[in-house]
Amino acid sequence: MVSKSYSNLLELASGEAPSFGYMTRRIPRIMTVAGLISDVDDDPVESVCSDPSSSTVHRDRIIMVANQLPIRAQRKLEGGKSCWSFEWDKNSLLQLKDGLGDEDIEVIYVGCLKEEVHTSEQDEVSQLLLETYKCVPTFLPPDQFTRYYHGFCKQQLWPLFHYMLPLSPELGGRFNRSLWQAYVSVNKIFADRIMEVINPEDDYVWIHDYHLMVLPTFLRKRFNRVKLGFFLHSPFPSSEIYKTLPVREEILRALLNSDLIGFHTFDYARHFLSCCSRMLGLTYESKRGYIGIEYYGRTVSIKILPVGIHMGQLQSVLKLPQTEEKVCELIRQFSDKGRTMLLGVDDMDIFKGISLKLLAMEQLLIQHPEYQGRVVLVQIANPARGRGKDVKEMQAETKATVKRINETFGKPGYDPIILIEEPLKFYERVAYYVVAECCLVTAVRDGMNLIPYEYIISRQGNETLDKVLGLASSPKKKSMLVVSEFIGCSPSLSGAIRVNPWNIDAVADAMDSALEMADSEKQLRHEKHYRYVSTHDVGYWARSFLQDLERTCSDHVRRRWWGIGFGLSFRVVALDPNFKKLSMEHIVSAYKRTKTRAILLDYDGTLMPQASIDKSPSNKSIEILSSLCRDKNNMVFLVSARSRKMLSDWFAPCENLGIAAEHGYFLRMKRDEEWETHVAGTDCGWKQIAEPVMKLYTETTDGSTIEDKETALVWCYEDADPDFGSCQAKELLDHLESVLANEPVTVKSGQSNVEVKPQGVSKGLVAKRLLSSMQEKGMCPDFVLCIGDDRSDEDMFEVITSSVGGPIVPRAEVFACTVCRKPSKAKYYLDDTAEIVRLLQGLASVSEQVLSFSEQLK
User: Fold this and answer.
1) Which residues are registered as beta bridge partners of 561?
2) In this structure, what DSSP letter does residue 147 have?
3) Among 70, 218, 514, 688, which residue's Cβ finds the most Cβ atoms within 10 Å?
4) pLDDT over 70 at 664, yes or no
5) H/E/C letters for each residue in 315-369?
C-alpha cells in the first residue's frame, strides 16, 4: 500500500499549505549525530493549522510506535559474506497484526532494533525491514541510546514510576539534565521517523510506554489534527511521588497532546488524573462510562484496560513436540520423585520481589517441616533489562539466599530452591508452567505482568499434554496463583490468593494454602481465570483501544485547530469552525456606525483576573467604564455574582453604570436609582437549613470558606486540596439538594464552589430584561457586546445570540465574547483580561473622541 506523506518539510516552516505526494518505497535514513540537541524546539511556525475541509475519514493504517521493534535480528554468514537476517519476535506484545483480526488494516511499526547496525548498512536494513515486515527502524548512536535508555529511562523514570525516590545516589538516579535532553532528543528522532511514513489525515498513531512520553508533543506540533493514542505499560505513581520529578509538567502536557491515554488499572489512571488536577489545575468527568479531561477545547479520553496475551501463539507453542519432550523431562525430575513444583518467573529486577519470595519459601519450610523433600521452588530469573549497581547487588543477594536455604534444608538429591539464570526458550518456560502446581508472582511493584496469564493458559493444556501428564480425557483442569497486590493483573484475577509481598509470613501461609487447597476449589478458580484470560487476549485489548481512539478522534475533521506555546509547552486548541478571536478593528468599526448600544460585562475573570488577590477594580477600569457610561448611546451593565454592597462601593464613581448583583437578583439601572429585586418576596429561611450543612463541610475541609450573601450562600474550596475539595463538593451538592428539595432554591456547582441561590435567577434573565427594557423605552439596540468567562455567563451568550432577528433585537451587530479559547456558546474569544481591558479602552476612546467633537461644535 502506498501512503501519502509530507513531501517537503520546508513547506511547514514556510507556513505554506503542505503538498501531498506518494511515498517512494525507499525510506531515507535519519542521520543522527552523537551529542545533544536542545530539549525544546522553539520554532512555532512548524505547527500546521488544519483545514477541516481537506480530508476524509478512513481507518486503514495504524502506526505502532515503541522503543523496540517486534523484530529479532542476527548476523549470518551466506556465501562467505556476513549479512543480517530478521524474524518476528514472538515474545513481543506489540506484534499485533494477527490479533486485530481485520485484513483491511495495515500495521506499520516504528522503533529501535536490539542490535546495533553500522551506519553503512542502515539504508539497506531500513529498506529490507520496510518491504518485508513493514517496520521502520530508528537508528540511534550508541552513546545517545545509552543516555536515553539506560540513563533517563532506566535510572530515573523506571525507579520513580515504581515508587523509588532518589533520596541518596544509591537509591535510583538523581535527576540529570543532560540525560533528560537525550531523552527529548530521541523522542524527536522518533517523530522525524514517523513523519516519513505518516498520512496525518488518515493514519492512527499508537505510542507505547514511558520511553516515548514526550513524543505526542512533537507529532501534535507537526500535525495538529493527528489521531494519536498512548498506552502506558508501567505503573503511574501517586502524585506525591510523581511531583518530585523536575520535568513533571512537561511530561504531563506532552501526554495530554494525545487523544486517548491508556492504563492497565484504575489506580494508575487515578494517579494520572490526580497529577493533572494538582499540577495543571485540570478537571475530569465521566460521561456515559468514558473518563475525559478537558484540555484547551479538546477532550482527552482515559482508557482503563489491562493487556492480554497472544492466545494463538501460546497454544501453538503448547502443541510443539519440543514442549512435550520438556514436560516429560520435568515430570521425571519432579512428579516421578513425589515432588511438587512451585514456580516463579521474573526478570532479575529489584522490583520483582525475588528475595522476598525466597524468604517466604524458607519460612514455609520452617513452619511446615513435612514439605521438606516434597516441595521445590523453581525460580526462573530472566536477564535484567537495565544496568547498574542495584542489579548486581540483587543478583548477588539472590544467589546467596538460595545457597543458604539449600544448605539448610537440602538433602542428597534434593534442593528446595532451583535457580535458573540462563535464558530459556519460550517452549521451555511453557513446559515449566504446565508442570507447576502453583505460580508465585510477588513483585513489590509492577505494571501488568503477564506471567499469571501465561500460566493459566498453559495449565489448560491440550489433549497431547493431558496424556503426558496422565490425566483422564477432558478432565477439569486446575491451577493456583499467589499474586502480589501491587501488580497490574491482580484486580483481574479474583480467584488468586492475593498477598502483600513484604509480609513474608503471609506469603508463606498463601503458599501453604495453595498446596493444601482441595482440587475442586482449584478447578473452580482455574475455570474462572481461564474464561477471563481466553476472552481478554491481546487482540481484544488492541481492538478495544483502537475503537475508543477512533471514537475519540471522530470529530477531528469538523473542528479548527490552533497550535500555541513553545517547546514542550506546546499544545493545540480545537474549536468550532465559527469560533474566532474578536478583532479590535472589527468591533471598533461596528461601534462607530451604531447608535444604540448594550454592553454587558462580567467582573471576576473578565475585568479582574481570577488569580488576583486584590479583587477591587483598578483606577484604569473605573475610568474606562466611566467613559463608556458617559456616552449617551451606551447602556453599560455589570453582571456579577458578588453582593450589591460590594459592587456599589467599588463602582460608586461610575454614575450611569447599571449593576446586576448576585447573578441578577438585585438590579439598578444607575447609581442613584433604587435597587430592584428580580424575584419578589423571596424568603431566605432556607439558609437556616443550608448553613449548618455548609459549616459541617467547612470544618472537615481545610482551606474552604462560606460566603454569605443577601440571597445566596456559597461554599468555596479554591484554597483546599483540589482532589479532596472536589470530592467534598460533590458530596455537599448531593447533601444540599436532598435537604433543600422542597425549598424555592437551586443548588449549582461552579468553579471551585457550590452555590445555593433563589430559583429563577440567572445572568441570562438579566440580559433578557435589559434588552426588553431598552426596547420598551424605544432604544432598540443595534450593537450588543457581552463578555464573560465562566459557565454562568453562557446563559447571557445564549440569550443575546438567540434574540437576534427576534422582536427584542430585530437588527443588531452582536458580539458574544468569552475569555480564552474554549468550548462556548459565544462566537468570539479574547485571550485574557488584559486584552478585554484594551478592547474596552479602545471603545471608550471612540466615545471620548465623539464627545469631544460634539462639545467643540457647541
Assistant:
1) 574
2) I
3) 218
4) yes
5) HHHHCCHHHHHHHHHHHHHCHHHCCEEEEEEEECCCCCCHHHHHHHHHHHHHHCH
Alpha-carbon distance of 340 to 61, in angstroms, equals: 49
CA pair distance 480, 650, nearest whole angstrom: 73
| Neighbouring residues of 314: CB distance < 8 A, sequence distance ≥ 6 | 430, 454, 457, 458
Please provide the distance, in angstroms rounded to a whole number, between the alpha carbons at the two ends of the chain: 79
pLDDT of residue 856: 66
Cβ neighbours, 10 Å, residue 347 = 19
Please check whether residue 262 is in contact with residue 232, taking contact to mean a CB–CB distance below 8 angstroms: yes
**3-class DSSP state for residue 6?**
strand
> pLDDT tens, 194-234?
999 999 888 999 999 999 999 999 999 999 999 999 999 99
CB within 8 A of 16, min separation 6: which ones?
Answer: none
Cα 701 to chain center, whole Å? 28
- Using CA atoms, how far apart are residues 349 and 346, in angstroms rounded to an integer? 8
Query: What three-state secondary structure class fits 177?
Result: helix
- How many CA atoms lie less than 13 Å away from 224 in the CB half-sphere? 28
CA 155/CA 440 separation, integer angstroms: 27
Q: What is the pLDDT of residues 474-494, one digit of tens each?
A: 578 999 999 999 998 999 999
Q: What single-letter amino acid sits at 139? A: F
Question: Which grid cell is 155?
Answer: 535510572
Phi-psi region of 561 (alpha: psi -120 to 50; beta: other; left: phi over 0): beta
pTM: 0.78
Strand-strand pairing, 705-708 and 580-581? unpaired
Pull the grid cell for residue 786. Answer: 457581552
Percentage of residues in the chain having pLDDT higher than 70: 89
